[in-house]
Fold these 2 entries.
Entry 1:
Amino acid sequence: MITLRGLTKRYGEKTVVDDLTFAVPPGRVTGFLGPNGAGKSTTMRMTVGLDAPHAGEVLIDGKRYAELRHPLREVGALLEAKALHPGRSAGKHLLAMARSNGIPARRVEEALATVGLTDVAGKRAGQFSLGMGQRLGIAGALLGDPGVLMFDEPVNGLDPDGVRWVRQLMRSLAEEGRTVFVSSHLMSEMQLTADRLVVIGKGKLLADATLDEFIAANSRSTVAVRVPVPAELRKLDERLRDAGITTRVTGADELLAHDVAVGTVGDLAHELGVRLHGLGERTASLEQAYMELTASSVEYGTGVAA
Ligand SMILES: Nc1ncnc2c1ncn2[C@@H]1O[C@H](COP(=O)(O)OP(=O)(O)OP(=O)(O)O)[C@@H](O)[C@H]1O
């Protein structure tokens, strides 16, 4: 279990983690989401003592990281910036980590096997591809067989097989009763992997819920309309807005209309003589729910209206 109470971090004038209070329970995969710069990595870094909070605390099974006798045996972490010795082999890298944490040497082979790096154990880490580096980072997190695991963007650089492998690994670690806390930008992947979600924006807690609760609470009914002629798309968009319907043009030939019956949109298009190439209801995905929730807390927007 990871417990945050009023966790706060400032860089200069800016509060990048703002009074976060939530718990990450064992036996579940908890996804950690938020726009770029929301404060996810900083929160994770504070959890493993790499950054100090200005206020509040974060506890691993009730203890601060600094109080853990053998930290790697209690919490394993894959963080974005890996400090790897490029000239050292994968096996030696893990062995050095094991030795300094009182972890038996046999765990090195087990961890390498779990992540599929046994055959390249003797290869220098500096020669690893991005995906192999990620796998080695995951092996490092698993090395001490800890009950709490934290992964910052674990699928970064992995091919589709690797992505699926990470998903299955996260699920099986949670099924073993471990606490699994994982950040990702890939919403479709999170929808398949996570049981619970914690969403932050500009350092503040936006949501802490099960995946289903989150989608239900943050999605609206949406009708997608495809209109091949841009001038007609604009015409239909204006007509829908005049009728008080919220719309969003999402492409050269597509608009979304919210909280309206599909028949109403079809009838309005027919009245205007607008030719349609598609008209249908959209089922809410995590991505849509996430976009709805975080639209106002994107730090560096693209300038395109959300
Ligand atoms: N060492 C630092 N010095 C100053 N500002 C920092 C430092 N580390 C992070 N920040 C700032 O803190 C904010 C949060 O950054 P953080 O990396 O925690 O966000 P994130 O949610 O992990 O983002 P991303 O999804 O882009 O990885 C950003 O505005 C970032 O610029």
Entry 2:
Amino acid sequence: MMIVFNPAAGARRRRRLLAALDLMRGLGMRPEVAETTHRGHATVLARDAAREGVRIIVAAGGDGTIAEVAAGISGSDSALGVLPLGTANVLALELGLPRAPARAAEVLAMGRTSLLHPGLARYGDGREVLFVQMLGAGFDAAVVHHLPGGLKRAIGKGAYVLQTIREMPRYRFTTLCAELDGRREEAASAIVTKGRLYAGRFLLAPGADPHEEGFHVALFRDAGVLAAMRYGAALPLGMLPRLRGVDLIRAGTVRLAGIGVPAQADGDAAGALPLEIGPAPRPMRIVVP
Ligand SMILES: Nc1ncnc2c1ncn2[C@@H]1O[C@H](COP(=O)(O)OP(=O)(O)OP(=O)(O)O)[C@@H](O)[C@H]1O
């Protein structure tokens, strides 16, 4: 087993990692730990470990770190493990992975796995971005693009709320075009999700399951500040999936286009449209409780 640790959020994360390591050592495990030094590094570390035949490669960080490690092991026989140390930890909530470091370590020690079907976004320039949870295009991506890293480290999840309020008056709402299995739709924003949850434990797509193939696409039809406020208020109340102006559609492939529309994948900035989303070439195994 190898642990890929993102130390970016400081001392608290390191303490939680050490607590997990303590338990593992108590069980006689001696996992190697590699620390990331920059964005994208987790993918390189995980890819090298997968080539060496490491059986379980653990992402110790948030959803961005998990996505980077998943990209590194994609196509290999290594399984993905998770020590949830991030801000939102959506995948951990989705899969019922414990947040307490000792309990998360126990799950890793047991090594029970299930199949995960990540999504792969392909851009016009040939770039590819793998995601395990979701890809958003439009307003939520603008929030992610402009979120100051320092603010997130200082106040955690509240940073997203603050940045959403800041973004409302300045985001230039444009129409994006979504092609869902070839069927054309229009929306102000879209979230292509593998899972049920969004931004923490808030319900977005009740019928979704990351263990299944395909995507659930949430289309936010209405543009403008008032609509964004309505969506933002409905989310924590669990009312978003039933809200007027929100449609949820299943699809196996998704094309998104729109001039200057930003994209985010698993909570990290991921360029701009146009892009095409389909399944990753191979599903991967993930360690689950
Ligand atoms: N050493 C580093 N310094 C700065 N940034 C890093 C470093 N290592 C990784 N990163 C970047 O930090 C991003 C965010 O980290 P991560 O996902 O672990 O935490 P988070 O954003 O707080 O969690 P969540 O996504 O659950 O909200 C990663 O996508 C990665 O690109």
